[in-house]
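User: what does the whole thing look like in 3D?
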Amino acid sequence: MAQASAFAPPAGLADALAVTLLLLVAAGATAVVLVRARVRQVLVLSVYGLLLSLLFLAFQAPDVTLSELTVGSVLLPALLLLTLAKVRKREE
Amino acid sequence: MTPAARRLVFLVGAAGLAVFYLFGLSGLPGFGRYPGPYGFIVNRVTVAQTNATGVVSAVNFEYRGFDTVGEEFILFAAAAGMAVVLRHLRGEHEGAPLEEAADRDLPPTSDAVRMVALLFTGPIVLIGWWLASHAQASPSGGFQGGVVIATGFVLLYLSGEFQVFRRLTPADVTAAVEAVGAGGFVGTGLAAVAMSLPYLTNFLPLGTVPGAVSSSGTIALVSFFVGLEVTAAFILVIGELLRQTLLLRGGKS
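Assistant: Here's the predicted 3D structure for the full assembly of 345 residues, as structure tokens:
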């Protein structure tokens, strides 16, 4: 079996953190869908990416945290904002 | 199809999904319980076998390196596809950046944003480089490092220096770097084949100190190539989008 790390928090605390973050991620995902204004939606999506990366960190997946942090909360919103800007120009 | 019939189809489908989903969930191990032996085995043997203390990287670039080649080419194909879709169309021409801002005059980039962006560009590229070159010692790797380096270049644009961004990352050079990254990964695997070893066998010396930058043989090398590929792919995609948004005029909609 895996050895308990010396830095492991008490089980209750870890569970509370996991549940809190899961609820926050669920709320964040719902918020992304519910926000209809496009630019605002992208910004909410970016915050959601941040929440998701915190969740991955709490679940001890630092490598996925790094990827999600950079892609989910920085690059994906940047790409979407650029696309929106282009589309808006075409619409005029 | 009437709305009622459509709803019926949906309900049947949803019921089927629910049944199989719940059936699947009932067979899962409990939350936080890991039943399989594979992870424990990997944890135990990796450092001895590869001299990499970043076990995740060892799994990504060594034990399941062939899967990672596939993932790498997803990004490669996506960037190439983007470059094809966003190519220069007939009737489009490049104008001065931002001269036709959609609905307002664009305010000049504020000094605060410029300052922060320029201040962070160097450190971010450094951090990205550190991440990409320390796959064997930490849970980072070429992908994360590459993306971080690409964000460093995006900061250049954010600081209002779009022309600097373009000059530093000409599309030809970026595309070539991307190709070298993707090709280097595949080539490292083929080099093993040339020595009559299985594809992507770790044929380089593993170094003496586990977790040192010079340790872990092809793991570090492959991570470096992935870093090149990812950096270039993201810069290419963002550069294309920026060019589309800021410079191109005209053409059919």
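In plain terms: The mean pLDDT of chain A is 86. Residues 12-17+36-91 of chain A form one domain.
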